[in-house]
Design goal:
This protein is an alpha+beta fold. 46% of the residues lie in helices and 13% in strands. Strand 1 and strand 2 form a beta hairpin. The chain is flat.
């Protein structure tokens, strides 16, 4: 992870009047270096040894600040906990129905679909979200092992 991405994010926060605290910096750095899509609880657990006085509420509050500043997006996929993604480029997600793993993938933007939806319905389209569900490789292997053992 290059420091320049973190530095750009810090500068973006400063322009919105957000003061940079050590906890805030650690949460931001974790998000920007995370390859997954962590929950607030995941972030809290990863940082609690370094910041024993930090609460889960602190993590949530900072995630809200980052979201309002356009540094992260909140992903809600029907389960109880939101996940956070610092990849702000247009991309889509595939989600494992068994373990909840979320993987980014690139695909040409569906702008034409948005335009057609607006034309057909008269809606002013603001954005779209595409989710693909399935079973990740690890869960496929586990499932096959379970099926083999029941025979």
């Amino acid at each position: 992870m290059e420091k320049s991405r973190i530095n750009r994010a810090v500068e973006q926060l400063k322009t919105t009047g957000v003061r940079m605290t050590p906890q805030r910096y650690a949460i931001l750095e974790y998000l920007l270096t995370s390859l997954g899509h962590p929950t607030a609880d995941d972030i809290y657990k990863a940082l609690e040894d370094k910041f024993p006085n930090m609460s889960v509420a602190t993590v949530y509050n900072n995630l809200r600040v980052f979201k309002e500043a356009g540094l992260v997006r909140e992903l809600t996929y029907g389960d109880a906990s939101s996940r956070f993604d610092a990849n702000m480029h247009e991309h889509y997600h595939i989600i494992c129905r068994e373990c909840g793993k979320i993987v980014d993938f690139e695909y040409p933007s569906l702008i034409k679909v948005e335009e057609e939806a607006a034309r057909m319905t008269g809606f002013q389209v603001e954005n779209h979200r595409m989710e693909i569900y399935g079973r990740c490789r690890s869960c496929q292997v586990n499932h096959q092992a379970v099926v083999a053992n029941t025979k």
